[in-house]
From TrEMBL:
This is Alpha-1,4 glucan phosphorylase. The gene is malP. InterPro entries: Glycg_phsphrylas, Glyco_trans_35, Pyridoxal_P_attach_site. The keyword tRNA processing does not apply. PANTHER family: GLYCOGEN PHOSPHORYLASE (PTHR11468), GLYCOGEN PHOSPHORYLASE, LIVER FORM (PTHR11468:SF3). It comes from Albidovulum aquaemixtae. The lineage of its organism: Bacteria, Pseudomonadati, Pseudomonadota, Alphaproteobacteria, Rhodobacterales. The modification N6-(pyridoxal phosphate)lysine is found at residue 660.
Amino acid sequence: PDKVCGIYVTANNRNIMLRAQMPHIGLREDILRQLAYVVGKDPEHATLYDWRIALSHAVRERIVDRWFASTRRTYEEGAKRVYYLSMEFLIGRLLEDAITNLRLDEAAELAFRELGIDYAAVLLDEPDAALGNGGLGRLAACFLESLSTIGCPAYGYGIRYEHGLFRQSFEDGRQVEAPETWLLQHHVWEFERPEAMFQIGFGGEVREAGARAVWEPTEAVFAEAYDTPIVGWQGRWANTLRLWSARAVDPFDLERFNLGDYVAAAAPEALARTISRVLYPDDTTEPGKELRLKQEFFFTAASLRDILRRFDSEYDDIRKLPAKVAIQLNDTHPAIAGPELVRLLHDERGLEFDEAVALARGTLSYTNHTLLPEALEKWSEGLMGRLLPRHMTLIERIDALHARENPTRKAAARANGQVNMGELSFVMAHKVNGVSALHTELMKATVFEDLHQLHPDRIVNQTNGVTPRRWLLSCNPRLSALVTEAIGEDWVDDLEQLARLEPRLSDAGFVEGFAAAKRANKVDLSNWMAQGHDLLVDPEAMFDVQIKRIHEYKRQHLNILEAIALWQEIRANPDAGWAPRVKIFGGKAAPGYVFAKKIIRLINDVARVVNADPVTSPHLKVVFLPNYNVSLAERLIPAADLSEQISTAGKEASGTGNMKFALNGALTIGTLDGANVEIRERVGEENFFLFGMTADEVVNRRDIANHAAKAIAADTRLELALKAIREGAFSPKERDRYRDITDNLAGPDYFLVCSDFADYWRAQREADAAYRDSAAWTRKAALNTARSGWFSSDRTIRGYMGEIWNAGSLNP
Ligand code: NTF
């Protein structure tokens, strides 16, 4: 028999093996077979949905072959495994990603052309898996893809939320939230694993049993696993995303049912399922305290048990744990992993407490994603003690041990009636990382100052990255084709190869091609906005895009203030040769974040007034696209000219949108914040519109009395823009609709919108001038692409593998 992919092939499974090597073979036949035998339709009656399910199954089969092979190799090699624990995985659509990585695009397109079906529409039919809020969740998704591309044996662990991030629409300019329902449609990509089920307890008592303790919870739910294979570039490797779903231990109260109390009979099941019901739509504050803490413990405890079960199947010495297992905590959400792992090792396996802590610390590491004080998790001792009584005691002992080891220590994880999860994560991790150079330095100087003094080698930096497969190859086929034509296709998993584009900038044909790709992407976007949103914009105009969660620190209100000032200036002087602009916004506000929702409404109100103004409308349009998500980002980023990265310096930990824009040839207007600093260093300061105060200047400016009032008094444009809002220019029927915003900006203005306004205006006019010279602009844009290679998440993951996980790659 032949040997393919390390497996001996018999005549019977020969077709499967051939398909593993050449996935395009027989694709059309497989789609039709799946349509008939899995979907149960014939081609005459199949809907778009049916075709998508059939195609997805045909693609999935091709992944499964690689998936098995990857798992087998990992066992054969006794390789170290990486476990990425994250409350959020913002993966978006999976079909196109899989098709891209398996290189099935042409075969799939051809198959559907032959079948007479609109292939693009089939791909678009897939709902986004929106199991995340924003940057933190999307980073986790890019990391999964890079881990598979690199061939690092890894699992993502998270929660299978029944409802992902809410759907956003606008009513009268206001954000309206509706539940997201991705699981109402058959989710093709997952495999249910009823055999991987763990009982997770809450509450109850702790009984002392000699030196150990026994925790006897009073409440319990089952965690059931669902696996999604994540295939890397060229299908060389596939890892697993394992998501936990909650279900009741005793699903159904038959006695109550027979008495006719149907609601009470179903209650236990409903209550248990609540744990995996919804993703918290907030990435900066902690609502629904108890349920949130339950979610955190639920998925962390299930994941740890699963990890130890797998470890036990291979090794019989638990002391090998740090050598064979690396567990990354994505922010503090899974921080309970520290005490829980100690509990499993000490209480359940009988290791000495100090050794249990040492083993856990050797296995765990922690990534911090924000320094915003309201986002740093703290749990009241009352709540945690009630839900996790044993863990409370263990945290106290962890504190005591750490204090013994470090007598000069000041703070502790348990202090002032609260448990500080950042502190706990730091103490229980062998490495702690920030997500950009600036953020990591600020971690050392602020939140973790004391702990950093005690453990100067623990904090390291791993600047974020994005996967080039999704964020260039697949979302921007025109630019990718141009790049591949110029330098071959090695860039796809070696993004620094993009540097080889630079010499091509003297080639008029290449530069022309670059401009043409951007232009065509903009035409596509304009057509889509005209059809789907009834918005007419001129593709010749500069597309100026700000897409991200709505937050005061991200300063969408600075952007809209500038739009108002610009509108006023154009009205006063319509013939001054304005560079036409379309300002595009997208993003959701946390439902309880009243100020952010006001900002959304203001932008919509301004858009209505400005777009209806015949004097200014050839020069300025304002657009807020509803329901921003991963798929919308994939549509907008390739068409952007200008990328708005305008957070108050020191507040944005990294940003990853900023990288996606630069990679796709947009110029950044931005502050020295997060990864903007590193982007500017790499693309060159002449190809980046810098403005605003530095993080140090921000801190000092806040100490100046009436800083906002002074900035307003010194800048007539700002004053007039604020005045227009205050006088109801955008809300004529309700003049003080935006009183909170104008009062805040003229008063405390914590995020220093007013103080940065004048310099922002200056940088924007510089951008206008640069855009007017279209040849020079294209050159700058192309340099952004050519110099963005370092921002691949492959580079980031290699950094984690080398400096944090001590893990290797098994890619052939
Ligand atoms: C986010 N943090 C940061 O705000 C972004 O700057 C960063 O790029 C991403 O993490 C990824 O590192 C969060 O979403 C959270 F939840 F921590 F606030």
